[in-house]
Amino acid sequence: MSTPLKYTRTQVALHWSVFVLLIVSFFSHEGMKRAFGTFLRNGTAEMSTGAYVHIIVGIIILALVVWRIVLRITNTAPPEPKGGLLGLAAKAVQFILYAVLVILPVSGLIAWFGGVHDAGDVHEVMFTIGWLLVALHIIAALVHQFYWKDNLLARMK
């Protein structure tokens, strides 16, 4: 099997879809936070549109990330542009980002549907780590594109 120069259209669509849904999740998380707090205090939740959106988007993100992982395992990926320590760091960040993108919605689902406060705490921590990793991912892509000028972004078009 030859090594492709780009990701497949499906992989690209999944990548950008998860990114957009993460933004929706970010803007809907306050509604979910209020609903979860009410649920923990009273045993019932006052559901807002934001809370519903957050739950639905989280489930969709989980499904898309699992699909993306399956495709990553079953399809050959484009070659990495940098080797050595930078290549190892890129692989580590990518692995951790995938892990966070699975743990984040799973912990949210366990917190909400299982009423597990600790899972909610894990969800909050993963939320912060996830955004830090997304920012690092974006910065690294921009460094590749504009400093090293290796046209890395073309792999994800």
Automatic annotation (TrEMBL):
Its main location: membrane. It holds the Pfam family Ni_hydr_CYTB. This is Cytochrome b. It is a multi-pass membrane protein. Residues 7-156 form the Cytochrome b561 bacterial/Ni-hydrogenase domain. The chain crosses the membrane at residues 12-29, 49-71, 92-113, 125-148. The keyword Metal-binding applies. The keyword Membrane applies. The lineage of its organism: Bacteria, Pseudomonadati, Pseudomonadota, Alphaproteobacteria, Rhodobacterales. Belongs to the cytochrome b561 family. InterPro entries: Cyt_b561_bac/Ni-Hgenase (IPR011577), Cytochrome_b561_oxidase (IPR052168), Di-haem_cyt_TM (IPR016174). It is found in: Cell membrane. It comes from the Bacteria. Its cofactor is heme b. Gene3D superfamilies: Transmembrane di-heme cytochromes, Chain C.
